[in-house]
Amino acid sequence: MSHHATLPTADIPPAPVISLGTKIAEIRVGNLAMNVAGGLLLVLISVAAILLAHALPHFASPQRWHLLILVGSLLALLPVHEGLHAAGLMKFARVPWKKIRFGLIWPWGIAYCHCAIPISIRSYCRMALLPVAVTGLVAIVALLWYPSDVMGFVTGMVLAAGACDVWTVYKLRRFDREMLIQDSATECGGDVFARA
Question: What is the rounded CA–CA span in Å between residue 194 and residue 179?
């Protein structure tokens, strides 16, 4: 008897069976490039957000408990980000939970949510941008509500975490939205196929 937890999927119809045609392209963002781009964005966005926080009239001076906000944000960001990818796969592409995998790419320490079946590029792009849209909006609202150095850094961290996703969607812009993409299990991106 299995003791694995499963999510209820009664309201999610099964994904249609899709036949792959000719492989058109490999779209990837390498792990090194992703870390460099993410690091640069983290610095740039954090500095801009901290400057914005200081410019607001209700800026909050540093407090000891701000460290709790930072640690909590660091611990929550990866599971929330990858969980939103999974939610996007189930919502936009009707991917069943059993076809979604989570893990870390070593030695880079990159968390991932992997889809084991091909989906349309349209669904893939929606899924890819969902975490940065949701967490980015929350972080920006929090920064404006409670402008502080720590919220500026958290905003930078949240938006930089979506660097690979935005970059991949940008690379997919030249393909028809109804073409298929098979997610890569080892790198950000995937292989683009025509429909059979």
Answer: 5
Q: Which amino acid is at 47?
A: V
Among 189, 43, 46, 31, which residue's Cα sits nearest to residue 109?
31
d(CA 104, CA 186): 9
Residues 6+ apart with CB under 8 A from 157: 42, 46, 73, 74, 77
The total of other beta-carbon atoms located within 10 Å of residue 170's CB is 12
Would you state the pLDDT for residue 31?
A: 83
Burial of 146 (0-12, 13-18, 19+ CB in 10 A): middle
Angle at 138 between CA 137 and CA 141, to 5 degrees: 85
Beta bridge partners of 29: 188
Residue 9 has a pLDDT of 47
Distance between CA atoms of residues 176 and 36, nearest Å: 29
Question: Whole-model pTM?
Answer: 0.85
Is pLDDT at 190 greater than 60 in this prediction? yes
Distance CA 162, CA 157 (A): 9
H helix runs in the chain, sequence order: 31-55, 66-92, 121-145, 149-160, 163-171
Domain regions of the chain by residue span: 32-162
